[in-house]
From TrEMBL:
InterPro entries in the cross-refs: NAD(P)-bd_dom_sf, Sc_DH/Rdtase_CS
Alphabetized UniProt keyword annotations: NADP, Oxidoreductase
Transmembrane segments: none
Any one GO MF annotation of this record: oxidoreductase activity
Protein name: Uncharacterized protein
Family as reported in the entry's similarity comment: Belongs to the short-chain dehydrogenases/reductases (SDR) family.
Organism, as annotated: Guillardia theta (strain CCMP2712)
Length: 165
């Protein structure tokens, strides 16, 4: 996670991510999705992997893909929470963590991004982009002005609908 404060009342949160499996995405597209739901889904994935029946339940064979789908969903949730009106200790009957309230007061932008397939130790140096090229989108997001898109998934410097790719 990268956070850069732009001024006293503004900043950006950027999660590194990538597009992941359709079967996972279909489980996390609800506009009412909450953090607790993501936790429950990921725990379900782990449980089914441990039992060896994850494929039967529609889960892919990739922990990485499931984790990145969860990051993309959390990005949407956090951005939605930041946009919500009203402050205080409760919103819609749920307790608000101080971090969320702080984000709302500072007009924070929340986005996730994919740096691309970079030649780093994670890819065994097999990537097609340099680390500097991979940093271009996260840096762009950190420098977005107030009022820019939030709750989005970015790659190659552009917003991509990760739910349809």
């Amino acid at each position: 996670m990268l956070m850069r404060q732009r001024s006293t009342h503004e900043g950006s949160i950027i999660f590194k991510s990538h597009v992941s499996m359709p079967c996972v995405r279909s489980k996390i597209l609800s506009p009412q999705l909450k953090k607790e739901d993501i936790i429950q889904l990921t725990e379900s994935f782990v449980e089914h992997v441990q039992k060896g029946d994850h494929s039967v339940h529609g889960w892919p064979n990739t922990c990485y893909g499931v984790s990145k789908s969860a990051v993309n969903a959390y990005t949407r949730i956090l951005a939605r929470e930041v946009k919500e009106e009203g402050k205080g200790t409760e919103k819609g009957g749920q307790e608000v963590l101080w971090e969320e309230e702080e984000l709302a007061e500072r007009r924070i932008l929340v986005n996730s991004c994919c740096p691309g397939y970079c030649a780093t130790d994670m890819s065994s140096w097999g990537g097609t982009k340099t680390a500097a090229q991979g940093a271009e989108t996260p840096v762009k997001l950190a420098l977005l002005p107030d009022g820019s898109p939030t709750g989005e998934y970015w790659t190659e410097g552009h917003i991509v609908d990760w739910t349809k790719t």
